[in-house]
Amino acid sequence: MGAGADIRFSYKTTTGMILDHLNEKWDKQKLILITFKDLKAVGLKGCTNVLECRNGIENYIGEYLSKQGVPILNYYQHWNYKKEIWKKWEENNYKL
Question: 74 phi and psi, to 5 degrees?
């Protein structure tokens, strides 16, 4: 699960450095590309729902994939928000 620069398959990104350290390569055959139009800020400023911001969408999709058994190499970085905060948002239909 990555955003922005990760799509370049660079080994200079955090995920790329982890792959390099493990002597692994980017798997370009299994790419899921999801684009969004008109998302608000990277953070939560100006949003009324966490799923209106890029980090919220990234977190949501990553958590869904993780629950489906898809390994997330850089799981620590995947969590843009603390799990306790995310759980409260889930309970409130992602409203801020």
Answer: -110, 65
pLDDT tens, position by position, 51-79:
888 888 888 888 888 888 887 776 666 66
Dihedral in degrees, nearest 10, Cα atoms 25, 28, 34, 35: 100
The CA distance from 62 to 45, in Å, is: 21
Residue 23, pLDDT score = 94
Q: ∠ CA(27), CA(31), CA(55), 5° rounding?
A: 115
Q: Is residue 28 part of a domain?
A: yes
Give me the domain span that covers residue 33.
4-91
